[in-house]
Design a protein that fits this description.
Helix content is about 25%, strand content about 25%. By secondary structure, it is an alpha/beta fold. About 5% of the residues have low confidence.
């Protein structure tokens, strides 16, 4: 089988979505499934929808285009680029916005296409990424309401992504208060109060009152089953829906420590290797072009020693591994995103062991068949 590759268990994605949808429904919160970490995969998106997601979101216009035909609302979750407003109104029903000049351009583009484009205004709640200052919200609302081809769908916020600010009753309360004030001032009812992303789950599950928040945009929690604030598993969710597999291209016993004068390595300062004696070392055909090193989780007993552009070096420990064998790795969000967007990593998407697999080919062979797994993560 082609390597390196990402294998996605679509049933686990669906199950994770369903559990989160059901738990959040108790608080009156709906789920928009976010597909940006999987390159806007239609198969993963469909699994989210089967699990009960009310719509889909992505940060990239080409990814949203790939999701056409799934019969659900699509939201651009990054502020639109002025250069792309024409495409934005074609591939998305809603976009998250902060800039008056972009709103005006979206209005003109939507008018040309004889469409009405939905707007969620993003509010700055402390994380210092995108967001309108609280004092400027009334003016921004008036701007949207003044554009005939735009519709104010709601208000939203985003926390934890830039500076790790934790969603809590205080900042979510600010958002809810703005929604009440906006509706009262303009005599309107907002359809969506988009409280944030997967980092909001701890707050949503623990809060007795989520206020006006009625939607979360969930990617990492659905895909990897973890809480982004602390990267801890969420009870009841699968944390292994995605597996990265790489092939061994060299196995040798080598000294633990390098020798000779040393300077910087290919990607800056080389990791310090301590100890004495030898190590049974393997090289895998996987590099920085394919995945984020810090996000790899090797099988128990195998230690990552370093990575260059095209080579991953590991200490095999007691594992019996030969050239041509494959080793499976778990991935975190950054590693998943990098692997899914690498042209050198093949993606295999499957629904359970008894159903046919579908492969999105980006460098492998269409006739590849899955090989047997072992319990050790080595094939």
């Amino acid at each position: 089988m082609t390597a390196p590759r990402i294998e996605a268990d679509l049933d686990k994605v669906e199950q994770n979505t369903r559990i989160l949808v059901d738990r959040l429904a108790v608080a009156g919160i709906r789920v928009t499934g976010v597909t940006k970490a999987v390159l806007g995969s239609p198969a993963v998106a469909a699994a989210m929808l089967r699990g009960g997601a009310c719509g889909l979101g992505d940060s990239r216009v080409p990814n949203l285009a790939r999701l056409a035909g799934l019969g659900t609302s699509r939201t651009l979750i990054r502020s639109p680029m002025l250069s792309q407003v024409g495409r934005v109104v074609l591939v998305s029903d809603i976009s998250l916005n902060t800039e008056a000049v972009v709103l005006a351009a979206l209005d003109r583009a939507a008018f040309r296409e004889r469409r009405t484009h939905g707007i969620i205004l993003m509010i700055e709640l402390g994380d210092l990424r995108e967001g309108i200052a609280v004092a400027d919200v009334p003016e921004a609302v008036r701007a949207v309401l003044g554009h005939p081809s735009l519709r104010l769908v709601g208000l939203g916020g985003n926390l934890a992504c830039q500076n790790g600010v934790v969603p809590d009753d205080r900042n979510m309360g600010v958002l809810s208060g703005l929604v009440d004030a906006t509706e009262g001032l303009h005599g309107i009812t907002l359809d969506v109060v988009s409280g944030g992303n997967s980092a909001n789950l701890d707050w949503a599950f623990g809060s007795h009152d989520v206020g006006r928040v009625d939607q979360l945009r969930l990617g990492e929690a659905i895909l990897l089953g973890v809480d982004p604030l602390y990267r801890t598993p969420i009870v009841g969710l699968h944390t292994d829906a995605f597996t990265l597999t790489a092939e061994v291209i060299e196995v040798a016993v080598k000294p633990v420590r390098p020798w000779g004068d040393r300077a910087q390595a290919a990607f800056g300062e080389a990791p310090v290797r301590t100890g004495a004696g030898t190590v049974r070392q393997a090289i895998l055909a996987l590099g920085h072009q394919d995945v984020a090193l810090d996000g790899l989780r090797p099988p128990a007993g195998i230690t990552v020693l370093g990575m260059s552009s095209d080579h991953l070096v590991v200490d095999l420990g007691d594992h019996a591994v030969a050239v041509g064998d494959e080793i499976d790795f778990g991935v975190d969000y950054g590693a998943l995103l990098r692997a899914m967007t690498s042209p050198f990593v093949t993606t295999i998407e499957q629904r359970g062991p008894a159903t046919a697999r579908t492969m999105r080919q980006r460098g492998g062979h269409d006739d590849a068949e899955p090989g047997p797994r072992t319990g050790t993560g080595i094939r």
